[in-house]
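ugh ok fine here u go
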Amino acid sequence: MDKIICPQCGEEISNEIGATLPVCANCGGNVKPPPTEAKTNSLGDETALKPPKVKSALPTILLTSFFTALFLLLLFAGGVYWFINYRAIDILPAEPSTKENQTKPAPRVKTRSPVAATEITRIEFSHSNSTTRASAAQFFGNVNPNNFKTRSGNVSFSRDGKAVKFNNEESKINGVQVSTTPHLLTGSVTPEQFATLAEVFVENDFLNEPDSKTSTSLPIIYMLTVFYSTGKKQIKTSNSGNDTPEAEAMLRAFKNLENQVGWKME
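structure:
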């Protein structure tokens, strides 16, 4: 152990166990300890008595953040590409309202029909529902009006006994037709069945039945068409299920006959 000599009195400064003291035990003067010598390890390298170096974590944090952001960007770009090319969203209108508190149209005064039931040659009911078919590009402002889907159908009964039901669904994206699924079914009705249907239309004064005033603004159209010997009458029925009592009676009779037909796929 190093010994210190007091520069004032010349005596050696040490305690009983050999540890050097910063103050002379004889004269009380302050004494500076000798500088600490650097130690060497087994390989001969000097290791000063100083705290270990702490490596900065900033480069690691920056690299991790960069690669994470890059991965998320690539994932987002891939998702948008898939959505635009392989995914389409059908924006369907809401179902027509069927609130119980809707005011039902009052019965109207019916007049004697100038068209007899025997003069009616065909009765049909048609419907169409046009909806927007949007791609992801439209959500980024690239709106194309040629994206749509249309569902339509027609059921008709003729006095000669023919019954025809036709349903079709057509879809276009960017003006290009991508699918169409027509379905044609045929059947037959007896003369008595058609006469009964025609009588219901005459009894409810079909010639004076107005178009529905309770239809909503949705692109859904329901139409009754009656063909007779001297012309035809078209009646737009309600797309919200709120028809007049007369229209309800005609639609109910038509639906009952439709359910009685043994339809066959063509």
